[in-house]
Every structure is written in structure tokens, then in C-alpha cells.
Amino acid sequence: MYTRTLKRSWIWGSLVMAVIFSGCVSPGPEVQHEKDVLPYNHDLLMGILWQQNSGEYSALCYQAFNAGKAYMASLPSGEKRAVVLDIDETLLDNSKYAAWMVTTGNPWGSDTWEAWCNAREADAIPGSLDFARSLREQGIELFYVSNRPGSTAESTIENLQHLGFPLADPDHVFLQEHTSDKNPRLERIRSLGYDIVLLAGDSLEDFDSTTRKWTNQERREWAGAGRESLGAYRIVLPNAVYGTFESAIVPNYYGLSLQEKAQARLEKIKAWKPSQLNP
Ligand SMILES: [Mg+2]
Q: pLDDT tens digits, the chain, 279 residues: what are they?
């Protein structure tokens, strides 16, 4: 049954392999055969390898959460303080799902992504559990705001609870409802009387939803303009496997074929053109 579901997914499902793992199904051409997808999934390989194996990835995660702790320690105490935490690639490591795409040739699909979420097998990002627990010990309210589909709420909460994340319950876990824009959910938290004193995420949209439709040049400028808030009010986790940075390389990226996407990625990198070396 599951095999049949997966088979159906790469015939009928969304064929954008690197769409943000957020429940957003992107339009794209149909791919009929696994061999059509497999080479393009391999663009994910180094990012997954880095996330799952490197000490540098772990170090960057610890560094991000250490910055968050230092910033929190610098704040004056206050009533009803809240921290908003993204889930995927901020608290939960989904690289096994991406690795499944690489090893099987399956594209990203909303049904297989949901199956992964419902498997509750995501591990904790290095340092994330300690960060969440330390905040809770200080009396900080935690809200988990994610663009996982709402249909995965029970599984996502159980995954977080199993790992030991505090306050992982329906009152504190806000998944995607009608929009991927997190602002309405942040406003709901504020309407409960909470002062959001820190946000943590792996995507610029976790901090400013308007960046979703921006070019990468504009996204870099956003980062530069807001540099003082980074490692302070905004804690950014590394994610080299997926993100809006990919679709932002060219307009209408999700309307391109797999081959066109691959070509667009290749054309976007800046290569050295040596004049002194033999070809
Ligand atoms: Mg995320």
C-alpha cells in the first residue's frame, strides 16, 4: 500500500524536488520514470552529507543557539515573554527524507513529505533541545510555528514530545493553516498578551514573510540591513539542503522542467575563469 502510494507520488505529485519542505506544493511537469528524477536529486547530496556528517554543521547549530542564550541573558526580565521557534531544520532534522529522495530517485511530494512527518522519525537539531529547555527553565513561553501541513499536527507534536521538547502541545504548536505566511500566527501569539523576544529559524521567511517573493540579491540585502538583529533577536540555523534561496535564483523557477532548473542552478554559480592555465 505504501509502495503504491509512493509510486503514485512521483507520477501525480509535485515534481519540484527542492521546494521548501513546508507543505507548499509547487506546480511542475510530470515525470514518468525514476531515471528522469535521480540525476537532479543528486544536487542535494553534498548538503545532506554535510548536515548528517560534518562537525562544522553541528558547530554552527551550537553556535546559533549559544548566541540565542547570550541574547536572552542580556534581556531584562519581563512578564509573558515568548520565543518563537520554527521546527524543520531548526529543531527537527529532516535530512533523512531528503536522503530518501536521493537514494530512490523520488521527487519531493506532499504525500511522501506527510508520510515522513507522520513517521515521527526526525531527530533533534544539535543544541536545539538544550536551548528550548533552558528557555523554559527561565519561564519563557515557547511557541512552535511551522509550515508543516496542519494534517501532521498530531505526529509533529508526538515527534517533539518524544525528543523532550517542552510545551509541545496543541496550544503551542502552530502549523500551516490557510497560508504559509507566519505573520498571522505571530499576531495570534501577541494577541494572547505575549511579547515575542526572539525568533529562531533556518529561512528568512521565519523572520520576515515578505522575503519569500524576493530575489536573492534582495534577500542578501535584507540580511545585511538587519545584521545587528542576527545572533540576537533573530537566531539563524544553517540549511544547505533546501530553501527559498533555490527558487529565488530565477523568476518562475517552479514552472521550469527539472532539466531547466538544473541548468538555471548551474548558470547561477560564479566560476573562476583562469587566463593563465591550460584548458
Ligand atoms: Mg525550517
A: 344 443 444 333 343 344 444 434 444 445 546 667 788 889 999 999 999 999 999 999 999 999 999 999 999 988 899 999 999 999 999 999 999 999 999 989 999 999 999 999 999 999 999 999 999 999 999 999 999 999 999 999 999 999 999 999 999 999 998 899 999 999 999 999 999 999 999 999 999 999 999 999 999 999 999 999 999 999 999 999 999 999 999 999 999 998 899 999 999 999 999 988 765
Task: Give residue 116 CA to ligand 1 midpoint distance, Å.
Answer: 15
Cα(207) to centroid of ligand 1, in Å?
11
Which position has the grid cell 522519525? 121
Biggest CA pair distance of the chain = 67
What domain range is 86 assigned to? Answer: 2-24+31-265
Residue 252 in domain: yes
Q: If DSSP codes are grouped into helix, strand and coil, which group holds residue 195?
A: strand
Model-level pTM? 0.86
Domain at 242, CATH number: 3.40.50.1000
C-alpha of residue 243 to centroid of ligand 1, in Å: 8
Domain count, the chain: 1
Enter the DSSP assignment of 238.
-
**CA 141 to centroid of chain Cα atoms:** 22
